[in-house]
Amino acid sequence: MRPVRYLAIADDLRERVARGEFAAGRLLPSESELSAAYDASRVTVRKALEALRDEGLVDARQGFGWFVSADPLRQSLGRLGTIEGQLAASGLAPERRVLDFRFVPAPAWVAKELGPGSVLEVRRLNLADGEPFARVTVWCPEKLGSSLSRDEVERSPFYEWLPIELGGATQTIGAAAASADDADVLAIPAGSPVLVCRRITTSTDGEPVLLSEHVFPAHRTEFVVDLPRSEPSIAPTGMRLVE
Amino acid sequence: MRPVRYLAIADDLRERVARGEFAAGRLLPSESELSAAYDASRVTVRKALEALRDEGLVDARQGFGWFVSADPLRQSLGRLGTIEGQLAASGLAPERRVLDFRFVPAPAWVAKELGPGSVLEVRRLNLADGEPFARVTVWCPEKLGSSLSRDEVERSPFYEWLPIELGGATQTIGAAAASADDADVLAIPAGSPVLVCRRITTSTDGEPVLLSEHVFPAHRTEFVVDLPRSEPSIAPTGMRLVE
DNA sequence: GGACGCACTTGTCTTATACTTGTCTACGAA
DNA sequence: TTCGTAGACAAGTATAAGACAAGTGCGTCC
Fold first, then answer.
1. pLDDT at residue B16 in the model
2. Per-residue pLDDT tens digits for A1-14
3. For residues A204 and A195, is the Cβ–Cβ distance under 8 A?
4. How distant is C1' of C12 from CA of A39, in Å?
5. Interchain contact, A223 vs B174, CB within 8 Å
6. How far apart are CA B57 and CA B70, in angstroms?
7. DSSP H or E run through A17
């Protein structure tokens, strides 16, 4: 339960925009409709929309309506979102291809977080418009992974299938030279620079439940971090594709 | 010795905050709720909260509530600003060596932010215990840079010498292969992976005033980013050295 | 084609309620 | 004196519900 309703609505709208539910340049539902949909007053909905406008995500014209900003100048993701959502927002077709799906003994750095034992390891290739842009490996404890099927994790984001609610995440971003294996699946020369991102996702009670390693070709991806100084209302952190 | 109730409550709250029970930026239960929960009067709860406020751990706004202070953010921003400080903290001797100090026409991506014209460009090498660990280039408008001397920027961080107050910053993090030049000054093989971080720092009124490009050898550095899930609040962002 | 009206939108108010912190007084116990 | 309880009141915030002005799009009538 959130004490501040309009922030929750802003979050939800931000996510829906990021998912591409409202195409760029297209109209959002009117304030009255949103008000009815969220069962909130128009004032509250407006505050949410105005918050999004401050982020440059949407804009409004009197007598016309609210619409997704044509050029999201600083499209910023304040929450733990999926890269796929951003892809969809920029009009690219996301695709997931599962390379491996197996239960294995936890690798060293995974065991350090989850504890020793068997884990589900899913190796996956993410594509945008047919072009590979990320090799992702996800590990989760055996007891969580046992309810998942390979088809499921190929269809939609991993965490959607987990029977628990996720909390926050910590990720480290580093650079490396592509291994022969990664170079192969990403269709880049071996040894060329890649961004390596390791993420530890915890459940709402703080236990690490999901570990992942993302490898991005350097020429296609970069991280954007906003460091606000004065008003800590939102500190967006996200990733975006560079063209 | 008489047990002092409000100090005990303050201790308990401090621990709950430290455990992350209340995410940074999140509202705490109201004074009335805490009062009921601890079976103490509101005055006592208030004294506990005020003690935490004096420590800078929480803050309050009238009519709104108590929330975990945003201080960690500013801290990490400061940390980002001075990697050198981190080095010193870990017992390494930081050193700055100015490679270039000159006024030049703004390069393309700099001109895009600062506008065309002449800028001060400072190329610098950062060392830890004699080992180079970052090549940094800073650009700032000519009228700001004209009051700086080469000795000054070699002695202490760039922004300390600027006659204006800085606001927030946006930085992008990417990977690349080391150029021949960078490889040379960083003492790494040409073409080996490096982290490239470009930062746009704005003044308090939102004007970009400082642009910088940091190049780190991949084997020594990585970024750490915390991602909150549902709370649009504070996302501490920092960088640390890897072993 | 041009003028008009209608339905709908955002922008900007007011009024009211519930809840919050901020501050104060009065009183009791060790 | 110090610490605690109990309560009252002021001031601020979030939200609800609604009224009204102003702008937009569209169909209709002349």
1. 83
2. 345 788 888 888 88
3. no
4. 22
5. yes
6. 8
7. helix A5-18
